[in-house]
Amino acid sequence: MSRNQIEALLDRYIKGEASTEENALVERWLEKNGNSNADWTSLDQSGKDEWLSSVFGDIKNTIRGGEAKVIQLPQRKHFLWRSVAAAAAVLIIFSVLYIEWPALQSRLHPVQLTALQVPVNQKKEITLADGSQVWVNAGSEIKYPKVFTGKVREVYLSGEAYFDIAHDAHKPFIIHTGNVVTTVLGTAFNIREDKSKNTIEITVTRGKVSVANGEKLLGVLTPNQQISFNTLKEEAIKETVNAELVIAWQQSELHFDDVSFADAVSQLRQRFNVKINFANDKLKGCRFTGTSLNGEKLDNILKVICAFNNATYQTKSDGSIVIDGAGCK
b/e map of 174-199 (b: 16 or more CB within 10 Å)? Predict the structure, then answer.
């Protein structure tokens, strides 16, 4: 933020012409840098305006002069910054406004985002401006800019998507899923938001990923690690998983190569977004090998894998599926 911009902002603030965002910026600076005395709150609005006008007048004169000089600030009722130098005030306001100005500008002039909504019976693959690839699952939405500007690359996800991010050490890639923030430089990972269960799951297949809830770090993930975050309880569980099973939904084929019945059902849950449960837990450990090409209906796949494992399945009125059978020894 240039000196002219600072001076113009102060002028607008004193004249009451600043926007709500600009007022908040200046007032945050005041709160952080000097209003420690409780008597400040006893001033009425005209008193505050009079005092601030005098302070900002001195600051603006120092800015115009182009050099630091010490100015005794007015003592209002013998309180408030009794020995603060205007040069120090200029230094503080420059540093604070320099840090916060980009955020203010982004709020005043928000980046235009493209929204991609995927129907419940489809999946979409997109390539972002930086070369990153994203596979968006059925019933999900992603919002992203046509071009990434600034110091970070940011997108917004609701639902599930698999990301393969182009590496850029100077521009982190950030995914917002509700309050959960996933930050990477260049890696591959899956994010799944399940609003019915109030959970957000982040699973890494390649590289390293940082996951936070707001400003609170939840953990750093490496391949085959997952964080499951409960948005109601604000609790995070970190565990080791088979990442290939987690991302099976975005593959063109379902591969069952010496897998357990439980793992096969996990893939089907991801692919078809349907609840599938076992009536007998002994079925989960049964192993088999087979392949189902993309395009097969769930009923056809279930018939095959149930036949492999001497099991049957039933579709309930709510759409969920229950698999039953004697199980394996």
Answer: bbebeebbbbbbbbbbbbbbeeeeeb
